[in-house]
Amino acid sequence: MDVLAFEWAFIWENREDLLEGLVNTLKVAAIGVAGAFLVGLILGAARAHRVPIVSQLAAAYVEVIRNTPILVQIFMLFYGLPRLGIQLEGFTVAWLSVMIWGGAFNTENFRAGFEAVPGRYREAGYALGFGPLRTFFNVTLPIGGRIALPSSINTYISVFKNTSLMVAIGFGELTNVANNIQATTFRAAEMFLVLGVVYLALVWTMSALIRMLEQRLALPEDLR
User: Fold this and answer.
1) Which band of pLDDT confidence, cut at 50, 70 and 90, is reported for residue 220?
2) Which of 98, 89, 106 has its CA nearest to residue 28?
3) Which residues contact residue 139 at a Cβ distance below 8 angstroms, ignoring those fewer than 6 apart?
4) What is d(CA 100, CA 83) in angstroms, rounded to the nearest whole number?
């Protein structure tokens, strides 16, 4: 019965290991979210503006990534690339896999946002003497980026939650640390409670901050 009894002190005793795992999770998530934003922005713009070759390659990338499980992609990077002579560390595989996954979804988010910008706005930019690139940065990006924000929020949250899948390759993020502790101590209730509370708190916080940003950047039409 002592083994089955819930002990809050057990969580505190393992706080240093759990904190180290949390730090690794946050590092991977931060790089993954930032990378997914840049990939989505660049490839989304290429697809929306039908840039030759780049647009076709981006479309193929999106189809492959969105239609295969992210766990398969993680295994391909961690176990498959070494067969080709490319050896990546667990941390690199962690942030690279979530960035590639998030970038594919964000590519479509930004593409849809940019294509939703009325053509008359771009024509107004040209009428002011802007070139294509300047029109994109001054007209299409500010408007289309705001349109794409709600859908990209879900992608960023999913990128964060998908860091937990790195347990499959033994990378020392929070889920893996908690799982290793419970495997040796049989304190599953304490460890999985920690995981649930921490992920819930972080995702709620992340969602709240992004929603505040969304309201701040909302288009005038959305405020009426």
Assistant:
1) low
2) 98
3) 117, 121, 122, 124, 125, 130
4) 20
Q: Which amino acid is at 65?
A: I
The answer to whether residue 74 sits within a structural domain is yes
CA distances from 64 to 20, 70, 104, 135 (A): 34, 11, 9, 31
Element (H, E) at 163: none
Decide which of 77 and 211 is more confident: 77
Q: In the chain, count H helices and then E strands.
A: 11, 0
> What is the radius of gyration, based on Cα positions, of the chain?
21
Q: Please give the share of the chain, as a percent, with pLDDT higher than 90.
A: 57
Give domain status of residue 60, yes or no: yes
Mean pLDDT of 143-148: 89
Per the structure block, which two tokens stand in for 217?
A: 């950047």
Q: Give domain status of residue 149, yes or no.
A: yes
CA atoms within a 13 Å half-sphere pointing along the CA-CB vector of 139: 22
Indicate the number of domains in the chain.
1
Q: What is the model's pTM?
A: 0.87
Tell me the pLDDT tens digit for each residue of 5-53. 667 777 888 889 999 999 999 999 999 999 999 999 999 999 999 999 9
2 in any annotated domain: no
CATH number at residue 15: 1.10.3720.10
Domain ranges, residue 168: 8-223
